[in-house]
Fold this sequence. Notes:
Blueprint: E1 16-21, H1 25-36, E2 42-47, H2 50-59, E3 64-68, E4 70-71, E5 74-75, H3 76-86, E6 92-96, H4 101-109, E7 114-117, H5 120-124, H6 126-164, E8 166-172, E9 177-180, H7 182-186, H8 199-203, H9 208-222, E10 229-236, E11 242-253, E12 259-268, H10 270-292, E13 296-300, E14 306-309, H11 320-323, H12 334-350, E15 354-361, E16 367-378, E17 384-393, H13 395-425
Parallel strand pairs: 1-2, 1-3, 3-6, 6-7
Antiparallel strand pairs: 4-5, 8-9, 8-12, 10-11, 11-12, 13-14, 13-17, 15-16, 16-17
Amino acid sequence: xxxxxxxxxxxxxxxxxxxxxxxxxxxxxxxxxxxxxxxxxxxxxxxxxxxxxxxxxxxxxxxxxxxxxxxxxxxxxxxxxxxxxxxxxxxxxxxxxxxxxxxxxxxxxxxxxxxxxxxxxxxxxxxxxxxxxxxxxxxxxxxxxxxxxxxxxxxxxxxxxxxxxxxxxxxxxxxxxxxxxxxxxxxxxxxxxxxxxxxxxxxxxxxxxxxxxxxxxxxxxxxxxxxxxxxxxxxxxxxxxxxxxxxxxxxxxxxxxxxxxxxxxxxxxxxxxxxxxxxxxxxxxxxxxxxxxxxxxxxxxxxxxxxxxxxxxxxxxxxxxxxxxxxxxxxxxxxxxxxxxxxxxxxxxxxxxxxxxxxxxxxxxxxxxxxxxxxxxxxxxxxxxxxxxxxxxxxxxxxxxxxxxxxxxxxxxxxxxxxxxxxxxx
Length: 426
């Protein structure tokens, strides 16, 4: 050991605050001596009258109260009532004379923690009685805290379940006992008292198209053929419609692996399923449109690399997948490349749509004239995220325009020649 340094001493136990109410100086002395001779760490305050008792009760906080049953003008039951009126959890021990056990039993019935008979042998045991009563009081206080914590946790869970619309179920397959929470029943449009907690109530409400697969999933889990129970199915609502439900559960098994209890929850996912179905239909519609449209539709990132090309690009001899990752302007004829790049830069700067005509190289090396409408895609904060282009082949239109221009020139030349000839003839 290091010299000059003593080992840490344990803290002395907290002193127990005791109040003893008795108008007999002799009896108070007996109790005082019994406590002083014991190892019970306590501080004793004595009251010989009702006034002293009430003053002590007002000025001090006690861990335990001892009281005689018969006090001048005052009874032990009055002490009991007064103490519990201030704090119902402070234990009161009745110290009664020989022959008044019946009174002490009545005091116990009314809330006293214990009683001690006023004999020398019993008084010597008083410190042990006090310790036992206080231990019991501490245990009761712990139990109250646990119950209060459980009640608070239960309240929080109920609020969370109601706000999240999660229904709980608890099933014991061997006995058939089933619990369905009010939220479980509310998902199907029922009040708690309107729907019996029976397995058949669930089974009979399964959609005919889902019943077999749902029951198979349940049996597979219970028989140990699957690792978890998570399944989606439809349950009939009170209105006659069906709600989509996500069910999850966990089994408690006995030593033989048999399911003794299953606990789980139901989550109404109708809106999610409807949203997914709507997205699926929209995606199918969009795919149908892009597959059968004649215009060429493509998407590009801000660097100009193609991220999507519609099936109509096959008109140019390209498989759409071969265009992904290439720069959108790679197929532009060199004579119009600067015009196209300038228009793209203008769109990125102004976020305004634009149009440009240019020649595009086909897969076989030939060129076609395209008219392309372009627009910058933006996010919620109006920041650019990409580009979208819609192009159509205007080669025939350009050819017809050229022919019309040539025809106009020929017509003009013919009229000029006729005018000259007329002047010569005159």
